[in-house]
């Protein structure tokens, strides 16, 4: 305590500049009391600053604390970011057939990814109730299990299944993410509500209600991600899962528009996950359950507001204490477009490989190079080096040429490892990532990995951010040990990109079938696929009845 007191009272040069003192002394809006409410036509409250104190003022923790009590123009108007989200989920009518058809494919693909994750004990050990043996009446059912959980724990379970293998859909912009992660919270709540409604003699929610929620969650997460980089301030993209899921489940739970504003404000103030667990030297399996955690927090917050808790109207814009000042370096969010159906219509499917999405086109190019080497009578052993011409995001996230790979999470986020495996074995599967896998144990894979380098192509980076293109380009140039340089192989858009959607549809359904096959009889798998291919029947099916088709005793 003595050391801490000395540290706090010591005069620090970096904290006595005028700019630092102005920042520390800015005033906050009045605390939003329980009696307050969110007006329907609200806008961002002005961000206010007070005059700087004399330059000679000493740094004091007491001064910082007192600044929150300085007189300011109190405002109960909610940040426009919050009200726009609430207005969208409560008022926007979705009429896009493309969005619903894409949502259907995303729904099937995402559930299939969750079933595939059940083959990995590292995932299944995290599932189930907090207290063994707990069975919640009318509770959320977890696909691939016989668990019946409260919706909060159910959201964690389903969200963790979905994300475990990094094989569900993807959205790439200033921020990256996987919008179908939101299904963890949406399906958990929809299933629980449906079972509860039926027990009370009421009608259940339909699968179309789930798809509507998915379109909305995709749009909220994706539009926030277009121009706002959370990774550049060290925050994980699952903050957007928490926000989007909170908004959608608030509507499903019957919250009003103003209550939804309150719930979303709680999601922003909830404290956000750091990206630490996604990057060397700390890459680890939390990245696989972070979305499940975000889904469960979202459901919990919506339920708290349903019980009467209020919100924080300027949670984003409040000087000193708001999200912008505390976590976003003082910047306000920017938006490229209003909420609609754009994100679902343009979302990316991971069709070909269970790999971080920025690597998909590199792996596809490597597969073509493998075929070229075979025709030449050569193999990966004849490769001297490989250069990957790529975009900036690929380098930021998965360029780990010389870094040690110590676990599954390291390997499925290393472009060099994934390209090396493809060049060595003409495959890349989930079974190539565990520590005891053939690929992870291969000296050739490791040696080649360290001879694969990445260089940024500014045009590729520009194309990646271009709203009209949104490509994820990679190009590979291979030099052989005899000095031969193979022709560069470039792939701009992966199979799951919108411009290749029709080509991808049968592959998406085959991926779904492949993920179901180990868990159910051939006839049951056929029934699920036939149902998935019949939108009219699928959309009108009760949520709980459909979920029951995935339950294993």
Q: Which terms summarize this structure?
A:
single chain, 553 residues, mainly alpha, four-stranded mixed beta sheet, two-stranded antiparallel sheet, 25 helices, MmgE/PrpD_sf_1
Describe this structure in words.
The protein has 553 residues and is mostly helical. The protein has 25 helices and eight strands. The chain has helices at 2-9, 18-25, 61-66, 80-91, 97-117, 121-124, 151-163, 183-199, 207-227, 238-252, 257-269, 286-306, 323-327, 342-346, 360-375, 392-398, 408-411, 415-425, 438-441, 443-449, 458-465, 501-516, 522-532, 535-539, 543-548, and strands at residues 140-141, 148-149, 171-172, 176-177, 383-390, 452-456, 474-480, 489-491. Strands 6-5-7-8 form a four-stranded mixed sheet. β1 (140-141) and β2 form a beta hairpin. α5 (97-117) packs parallel to α22 and α8 (183-199) packs across α12.
Topology:
Blueprint: H1 2-9, H2 18-25, H3 61-66, H4 80-91, H5 97-117, H6 121-124, E1 140-141, E2 148-149, H7 151-163, E3 171-172, E4 176-177, H8 183-199, H9 207-227, H10 238-252, H11 257-269, H12 286-306, H13 323-327, H14 342-346, H15 360-375, E5 383-390, H16 392-398, H17 408-411, H18 415-425, H19 438-441, H20 443-449, E6 452-456, H21 458-465, E7 474-480, E8 489-491, H22 501-516, H23 522-532, H24 535-539, H25 543-548
Parallel strand pairs: 5-6
Antiparallel strand pairs: 1-2, 3-4, 5-7, 7-8
Helix pairs in contact: 4-10, 4-11, 5-7, 5-9, 5-22, 7-8, 7-12, 8-9, 8-10, 8-12, 9-10, 10-11, 10-12, 11-12, 15-18, 18-20
